[in-house]
């Protein structure tokens, strides 16, 4: 669901957003290469997500005890929390090969049929961004998941013929950042559904210490805590910040990372103590200084910071809303009292009164 100029919901689509920020949770080429080296190989090594790990461990052990393929698994949650890593762990725990593809790559039922027909028995098929798969392919997937069979249509019009194709038992692992977009018939066919939560700072510190060991980087407890506090609850961001702090430490501090070095490095990269970067602070600053804390429409706010409307809505706002620094209301975007405090500003009296009804103050 998107939001219009007044802050109300609208079904109008927004364009894709390209984001190369240091605190972007989506993976880039460098992240993909580094993650391959840092990725844990089994559930015992995987940090965080205690409930999902415990439940998934039971599912996999039971399947191995029965000598059967594991149930289909759906993993939902924000980017960078470990969905791809867990899919690889599932394949490793089941001693099975893994095939990796994504929803946007499957635009026709024939694309999916080609992948399914080449699967080996017990193979794990990881389908990232499953909510973006085309509808015809989605409908074909229903039968494949439930009956391990697909009907391949040969010919067109009245002469078209459906040829049934039997599939070997396989495990589908679907990953999505927007579980609400999955149709119920597809969601119901997964035997296990796990929701990935954002990480606590203590969990991120464990991730950072483990990654530092693998990268051969010296870091103390205070340095790891400093990086973890700025990582937005996301392991991928924590690992990316660690690599940038490592670069700074190698040039400025003989390679050792402590709190002082971590803080100095992240100041250079414009990531503040709460994890906000230049764009986040620009949006908050415009909202507070130019518009008295709001309410203000999205397009007006985007013009004020010199960014596209979609960039502000899809790149900056989700984290600001999650941190309780910004609110989306029917009247527009509004800064919370925490936003004023974070930027060290005092809200105007009339602004505070105008926002009492919005925040129940």
Automatic annotation (TrEMBL):
It is found in: Cytoplasm. Mg(2+) binds at residue 84. Residues 1-21 are annotated as: Disordered. Its EC number is 3.6.4.-. Keywords: ATP-binding, Cytoplasm, DNA damage, DNA recombination, DNA repair, DNA-binding, Helicase, Hydrolase, Nucleotide-binding. It catalyses: ATP + H2O = ADP + phosphate + H(+). GO terms for biological process: DNA recombination; DNA repair. Residues 1-12 have a biased composition (Acidic residues). This is Holliday junction branch migration complex subunit RuvB.
